[in-house]
Design a protein that fits this description.
Number of helices: 7
Domain LPS-assembly protein LptD central: 222-750
Pfam family, one: LptD_2
Protein name: LPS-assembly protein LptD central domain-containing protein
InterPro entries: LptD, LptD_2
Region (Disordered): 24-55
Oligomer: single chain
Largest sheet: 30 strands, antiparallel
Number of strands: 62
Amino acid sequence: MAALWLHSSSTAWAQRRARVPAPAGVPGLSAPAGAGRPSAVGTDTTRTRRLLAATDTSRTADSLRVAARPKGDIETTIKYSAKDSIRFEVQNKVARLYNKSSIDYGDMDLQAQRITVDYSSNLLTAEGAADTTGKVVGRPVFKDGGGTYTAGRINYNFKTKRGKIAEAVTQQGEGYLHAETIKKNELNEIFGRNGRYTTCNLEHPHFFINATKMKVIPREKVVTGPFNMVIGDIPTPLGFLFGYFPTPGKSRASGLLFPTFGQTSDRGFALRNGGYYWVVNDNIGVRLTGDIYSGVGNSFGGYNLMAETQYLKRYSYTGLLNFSYSSRPPDIILPSTSVNTNLEYRRPRSARTLWVNWNHTPTPRPGGGRFSASVAAGSPDFNRQNSYDPRRYLAAAFNSTVQYSKTIRNSPVNYNVQLTQSQTTSGIMTFTLPNLSVGVARQYPYEWFGLAPQGRFYEQFSISYDLQARNELSNQVAARSLANGLPLLGGTNEGSVIPVRFSNLRPFLRNARNGMQHNFQISLGSYPVLKHIIVQPSVRYQQYWFGQRLRYSYNQAAQAVRIDTVRGFNVVSEQSAGVSMSTNIYGTLVRKGTHKIQAIRHKIAPSVSFSYSPDYTGRSSLNWVNPVELNALTNSQGQPYNVRDKQRGRILNPVSFSRYNNFIYSTPNSIRASVISFAVNNQVEMKVRNNNDTTGTTPFEKVSLIDGLDLGTTYNLAADSLNLAPLSMSFHTQIARKVSVIANASFEFYQRDSTGRAIDRFLLDQPNRRLARLAFADFSLNYQFNPAQGKKKSTVKRDVAPTNTLGSPNQINPYEEYVDFDIPWELTTSFAVRYVDPGPIPTRRFYVRPRPITSAALQVNGSVKLTPNFRFGYSTSYDFISKRPVAPNLDFYRDLHCWQISGYWAPFGEFRGYGVTISAKSSLLQDLKLNRNRSFWNR
């Protein structure tokens, strides 16, 4: 037997880059030029004849012959290399590669410590080798269209593309397949014997599904015979007669969604979230699922149907549309929305409910329109009957918005069209169809005439315009009442609700409110006065268009006022003008030397403004009317209304009514207003030495002491009494970037009578003098401590499959979606208190004075990292008024590599209960879990 032996180091071969012709009879071998490893190049007999023909100058090369496909079993060039040596056995047509050998043949790649190529049988054999310590190194790694395989020994026929792999490990989707022996066919299908299927990526997995027979279709599915679960090398009786595990690749695939088993106290046993996922195309996916309940007693538990569509268009938009329909027993009793310990119960409005969620988010693009949608609407009782998320369960209202906005190119005009809907759990629905707004950016009149800017005062004149138009539909009929306690014919202080159904379409449309508002804002520029004061005059004009108005008439027999709605086009206008003055005052205290605090600066920003609007009450042809017949009525003091005092020349006890009371843009301006506004804003900061700076680039830094201390009030010159409005104060600051303090207060300047009503006398005019009285105050203190604050945090998302949690009480912890194991512990506390002036001390017996402190609560939440993979969280609040904790909750999460344990415990309250779930982290085995809970639905 003749043999050829080649031996050299990889460095020598990298320097020589030699091309060694293969011995005769060893076809199809080549090595890439410049390869830094031992290589050889061979050609088949057809190619050799072509090369010999090319050297004969008497023959002309045939282009068709040159381009023809080589004959034989070799379809393409085989590239091979080895770090140590390559040995050819010419007579046996065998090549042996030693030490980190590799074979590249088309889409097949093989790497191993030793590789043998038998060209007579087209067979590749690869295996590892033991080192000096006896450890096997260079285990074969085989790659082809079916995936990547790690094995103890590989036999592969590169002609038939079939192979036999011993001690194989391969990844299929999110799972790993371990098998004693694997056979692979030309279709890349895998047949395994004595196999283990798992989602654990360790060589010795924590758990696996043990089966004697397996078939794998790459990127599609894994099918097994009888199997059982092995956890921690302990066989368990958990198993079935066959197994089916989908293993989708990068592309999505349609398939069945297997349901999960559960139990509820009101609807019995259940199969949930079973159905089908349909891939319509690359941009749309549809999920059709449902729940079915066995019921309690002799009644059927009902069912839920859900259809979810997710769509995506790259660089344009993304969206999610979800439709849910629920049917459940009509005789159930639902808990009320009360958060008291003693629960109240009520019957649902309907046994059949539905809900729609739609979110459409566009990709921002310059110059184009933007369409977006956020819809959450349906039956009022749907979330109370089917949602197990406390946030949705307790939500009192839901809002929906569909809008389109655009700025017209090369113009100052922009517009926005909205369709909105709001609903409450009490059944009140309000639709705005549509809500249109058009705006024109600020325009300078001098530019209209083509004048060049020359620094004149009129160049600061500007005009801006915006239009608002709305049509509002609601099933709530507002209550009608008159001011001053006047009797109303047919009026009531309680409104009514129109049931939402097609038979009530006419009264629903009749209850509509609509109108249009035009707003012109004219700015006359800003001018410096005395170098430091900025003066800004302005003029505002508003006009309202309404499709109806109110008509008042006095009924002598009923001694009451009658109100009728009259249809027609109506125009109402308002004008106002004003001027404002503002400046900034700085005070600085500088300390010389090497003190820690170098300077303290106080910034004061005072401002004064004046606004004026005329009186409209006397213009009966516009928007206000005075029924003269009311002189037959008297108020609570026995004084008649609208009686002219001849001596003083004015109306005593006047009363007037707006023709547009409670319209969509509220009541337009009524009486003359001449208001002076005062405001003072304060900021205090200090300059401190930076001890952490060693380079000298930032030796000092600024620290804010008071972010804002703002005071403001108004004085109405046109009012006949109580001219001075209450003084409002707001304070906010942040200490050491951890503690934030926010306070708001309101102070009144006038005295009160025994009933608590303000009278036109200042507090300074009483024997016990004082400037103001605290009427209202809010105070909140927030403290957040995080040892890793300011450092880069790595947030690890809980690797669980997204499931439809609607109607599923098995969701253990709906509050946390992420677990950050880089933070050892964190704490957030918030304290809030509210004060409301209870009024004068009562003189009547059996009268309980209200509490001045209406609310006071402390909220605490945080987490503690007990071990690198175990985190404990807590959240609760304490109500100091009721003297009891509110909604306490404890939760934990334990990472077990390929498994996870999560749980929660709410010791008392409406949502009291507990739950523990042990589950696999992979979404492929999302149904492989052990769950135990007692929630507020099934305890």
